[in-house]
Fold this sequence. Notes:
Blueprint: E1 4-6, E2 9-10, H1 11-15, H2 18-23, H3 31-52, E3 56-60, H4 65-70, E4 84-89, H5 94-106, E5 114-120, E6 123-129, E7 140-145
Parallel strand pairs: 5-7
Antiparallel strand pairs: 1-2, 3-4, 4-6, 5-6
This protein binds zinc ion.
Amino acid sequence: MEIRLSRNFVLSEFTRSTTAAKLGIPNTPTPEDIARLKQLCTKTLQPIRDAWGSALNVTSGFRGFRLNKAVGGSDTGVHPLGWAADIVPANGKIKEFKAFVKFLLKKGHIPFDQCIDEKDGKHEWVHLGYANRKGLQRKQFLTKHR
Ligand SMILES: [Zn+2]
């Protein structure tokens, strides 16, 4: 049974992980994690999706603590809490999407903690965090290119 998080986002998009499947690591969110994923979706991702006007893909969303360690995720990040997702536009226009998200979030109407322009080799995505582990929304724009 699919759980809808907001109009255009469902839970399975946030929990699927090729690494988890390969290593046999369970990646099952608790009800609290799902509540946080709903906040992330309804408050931050859905408004961005609506403004962008076409589909967004989640490349990594919820990562339980074991999975987060296995993929080398940040120890202080909020993927393990369900408050962050790595997003790409389904139409492949990542450069335009990165610029669009920055422009949109700088207007100040959409709540968020961190917007990180990420790049690893030829993979690019936007990390969007709803709040940090203390529940703060610092409105940070960062760049992490490897
Ligand atoms: Zn991320």
